[in-house]
Design brief:
The chain has about 120 residues and is α/β, with parallel strands linked by helices. About 30% of the residues lie in helices and about 20% in strands. It has one domain. The protein is globular and about 40 Å long.
Length: about 120
């Protein structure tokens, strides 16, 4: 069963044990701040707006996989990469570790992404 992540709240991340302070949002902490603290990945305002507007949800395990995918892209010298997940596609700046935009399945009809130099398929 896949758990969906609400854009207004992120449950504690699963995976390697982390101190409680790093797993759950701090009081008054926004979605952007929690994502960055929990995963080391920033989401631009544009990306957050696209996730919300397109009603896209990240599965709890996808944040860790996104970080691993950015690590792989960085090792290969990528600068802007296309991250391809099961239910969405993200464009990210590798060196800034920032997701720039997000597209769901229905948004793939154009199937053209520009200004990227690599692609990583996330399993």
């Amino acid at each position: 069963m896949n758990k969906k992540v609400d854009l207004n709240y992120i449950p504690p991340l699963t995976g390697p044990a982390q101190p409680a302070a790093k797993r759950s949002p701090k009081p008054g902490e926004g979605f952007q701040e929690h994502l960055q603290r929990a995963s080391g990945i920033k989401f631009s305002g544009h990306a957050l707006e696209r996730l919300k507007q397109r009603e896209l949800a990240l599965e709890s395990g996808q944040l860790q996989k996104l970080g691993e995918a950015l690590d792989q892209a960085e090792k290969k010298g990528a600068r802007e990469t296309l991250l391809i997940c099961e239910n969405l596609v993200l464009v990210a700046s590798v060196d800034k570790r920032t997701v720039i935009t997000a597209v769901g399945q229905e948004g793939l009809k154009d199937r053209v992404f520009t200004n990227v130099d690599s692609a990583v398929f996330i399993k």
